[in-house]
Every structure is written in C-alpha cells, then in structure tokens.
Amino acid sequence: MPHLEAAKKDHNPIRYQYQYQTGEQYIHIPGAKLTSVIYHSFLIIHKLLPTYINKHILTEQEVNQH
C-alpha cells in the first residue's frame, strides 16, 4: 500500500504524493482526468505549460480547463 502525504494548503496543485516500493514517485490530483501520474512527468509538464502559453500554442483558459 503506498504511503500518502497531505500537501500544504497553498497554490501547489499536488494534494497527495506517494512512493511505491520500487521507489517510483507518483502524485494524485483529486478531480483531474488523470488522477495518478508519475511525479517527474508532472514536473516536466508543469514547466512546459508557461512556454506553450507564451508562444500562443495554448491559451491560459485551455490550460486551466485541464
């Protein structure tokens, strides 16, 4: 059973982070379409989204919908 840690109540979208016995870390985002994602993948996407917005590939509204 993975260990869950509650995140601080701030602007951090991560609410729960857990680690499997294999050492791989995941995050759980309640209400999201993908409820569990690999933590490292989430960080990469989180850093890329502002670039997509700045280059007008996605609008901020489109990003906020997901």
How would you state the average pLDDT, rounded?
Answer: 69
Secondary-structure element string: EEEEHH
What spatial order of strands do you see in the largest sheet?
1-2-3-4
- Distance from N terminus to C terminus (CA atoms, Å) equals 28 Å
pLDDT < 50 stretches: none
Q: Label the overall shape.
A: elongated
Features:
66 residues, alpha+beta, 4-stranded antiparallel sheet, 2 helices, 4 strands, 20% strand, elongated
Question: What does this protein look like?
Answer:
- By secondary structure, this protein is an alpha+beta fold.
- The chain has one domain (5-65).
- Helices cover 33% and strands 20% of the residues.
- The chain has 2 helices and 4 strands; from the N terminus they run E-E-E-E-H-H.
- The chain has helices at 39-54, 60-65; strands at 5-6, 16-19, 25-28, 36-38.
- A 4-stranded antiparallel β-sheet has the order 1-2-3-4.
- It is elongated, with a radius of gyration of 13 Å.
- The mean pLDDT is 69.
Topology readout:
Elements (H helix, E strand, L loop, with lengths): L4 E2 L9 E4 L5 E4 L7 E3 H16 L5 H6 L1
Antiparallel strand pairs: 1-2, 2-3, 3-4
Short description:
This protein has two helices and four strands, in the order ββββαα. By secondary structure, it is an alpha+beta fold.
